[in-house]
């Protein structure tokens, strides 16, 4: 088998104008892509071009600009849907993954309240029904389910995480049972960087007829993604984590699921007929897209996925695996570093490592690294329960993307190696 040609991250770096700057007199090493990615010039140019040449309301008006804007907007839907292996009617625009998960939770709540008719009854929750999540959730895939449970009387349960960061599948098999109605989980943890066993979890959920919801925020920018092939019912992702702009994301759903779910937000653009007392709704995806949509952002996101496709997602993943190994092996060699979820080398991961520097607060570590031009994330990364699982309140997280080089990783490691001595925390 021929290996993939090596991705030239140094050449790609030139496509991202923000990376040309210096911080603290040092070349910027941006290792916070799990929080938000940087944007290539083509994405910036695409959004500016729409706003300066084609800006108009879509799906309205008979004038030329409106027609051109509508074509670009719907072409963007088709392009982004294809990037995740879906058809265009399976992609709902949202403002991001958080909005997408809340949409699902409130739609299920509306079904529980009797909205949506016979087709939606399968989603209704009764007191004592169960929603299963994991111990490794971002708050965005935890709090909406807490609120749904509180509104409906459902019970929220969680799949624990082993000391090495992998999910306890034996516990999942015992948790997912006859009363389980929803199983929601991350494709990749935003703290651990571990690719979770989607197939096994989907099989468990399908065996009891539960709805599966996948948080694909950390997988969409880093691994080849085919959501229909994964077998999940619903999935969400955010544009700003995958080289796109803020304020745009996607909700993928199997067509029969989206068409059966009752809408959440209501208003213009998602209806067929309205009287003073009732309304009929369009099929998906428009039934979930009330009001003015993020048009320029959607078009720019299409440019982002075109960029990723041109580079090749298989090449991106292969490159980032090299960075991941270099980062994790290097951190292991530094005294006083504790990695969160240091799973065995055979576990599939992305280039993301969260760690503790013993004797030094994470915020101090972040400032020390920033002074050396290395940008990382510090805090609980919107995953407080997972940090408590590992006995800490905050960690340092370094996360790479396709524009990072091995030199970037070496600069991180060199900076981290000097933290404890600087703060007088060494032995």
TrEMBL record:
Its ancestry begins with:
Bacteria, Bacillati, Actinomycetota, Actinomycetes, Micrococcales
Species whose genome carries this gene = Microbacterium endophyticum
The role this protein plays is: Catalyzes the removal of elemental sulfur and selenium atoms from L-cysteine, L-cystine, L-selenocysteine, and L-selenocystine to produce L-alanine.
Query: Sorted alphabetically, which SUPFAM superfamilies does this protein's record hold?
Result: PLP-dependent transferases
Q: Which CDD domains match?
A: SufS_like
Catalytic activity as recorded in UniProt: (sulfur carrier)-H + L-cysteine = (sulfur carrier)-SH + L-alanine
Enumerate the UniProt keywords alphabetically.
Lyase, Pyridoxal phosphate, Transferase
- EC class: transferase
Which PROSITE patterns does this entry report, sorted A to Z? AA_TRANSFER_CLASS_5
Spell out the protein name for this chain: Cysteine desulfurase
Give me any GO biological process, just one: cysteine metabolic process
TM helices/strands, residue ranges: none
Top-rank taxon of the source lineage equals Bacteria
Per its UniProt record, the required cofactor names are: pyridoxal 5'-phosphate
């Amino acid at each position: 088998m021929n290996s993939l040609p090596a991705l030239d991250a140094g050449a790609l770096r030139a496509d991202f104008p923000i990376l040309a700057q210096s911080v603290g007199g040092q070349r910027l090493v941006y290792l916070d892509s799990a929080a938000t990615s940087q944007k290539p010039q083509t994405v910036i140019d695409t959004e500016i071009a729409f706003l300066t040449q084609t800006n108009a309301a879509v799906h309205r008006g008979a004038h030329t600009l409106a027609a051109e804007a509508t074509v670009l907007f719907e072409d963007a839907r088709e392009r982004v849907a294809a990037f995740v292996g879906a058809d265009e009617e399976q992609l709902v625009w949202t403002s991001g993954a958080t909005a997408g998960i809340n949409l699902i939770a409130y739609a299920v709540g509306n079904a529980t309240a009797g909205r949506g008719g016979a087709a939606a009854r399968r989603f209704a929750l009764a007191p004592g029904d169960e929603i299963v999540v994991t111990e490794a959730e971002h708050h965005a895939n935890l709090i909406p389910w807490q609120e749904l449970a509180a509104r409906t009387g459902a019970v929220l349960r969680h799949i624990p995480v082993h000391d090495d960061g992998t999910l306890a599948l034996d516990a999942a098999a015992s948790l997912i049972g006859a009363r389980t109605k929803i199983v929601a989980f991350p494709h990749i943890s935003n703290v651990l960087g571990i690719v979770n066993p989607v197939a096994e979890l989907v099989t468990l959920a399908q065996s009891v007829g539960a709805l599966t919801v996948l948080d694909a925020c950390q997988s969409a920018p880093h691994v080849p993604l085919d959501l229909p092939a994964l077998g999940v019912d619903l999935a969400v992702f955010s544009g700003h984590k995958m080289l796109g702009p803020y304020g745009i994301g996607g909700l993928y759903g199997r067509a029969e699921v989206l068409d059966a779910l009752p809408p959440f937000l209501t208003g213009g653009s998602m209806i067929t007929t309205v009287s003073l007392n009732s309304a009929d709704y369009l099929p998906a995806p428009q039934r979930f897209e009330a009001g003015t949509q993020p048009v320029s952002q959607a078009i720019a996101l299409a440019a982002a996925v075109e960029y990723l496709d041109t580079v090749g997602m298989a090449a991106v993943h292969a490159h980032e695996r090299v960075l991941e190994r270099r980062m994790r092996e290097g951190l292991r060699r530094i005294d006083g570093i504790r990695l969160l979820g240091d799973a065995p080398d055979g576990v599939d991961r992305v280039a993301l490592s969260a760690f503790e520097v013993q004797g030094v607060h994470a915020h101090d570590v972040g400032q020390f690294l920033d002074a050396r031009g290395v940008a990382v994330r510090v805090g609980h990364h919107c995953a407080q329960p997972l940090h408590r699982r590992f006995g800490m309140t905050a960690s340092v997280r370094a996360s790479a993307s396709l524009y990072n080089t091995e030199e970037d990783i070496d600069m991180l490691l060199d900076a981290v190696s000097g933290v404890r001595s600087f703060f007088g925390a060494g032995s």
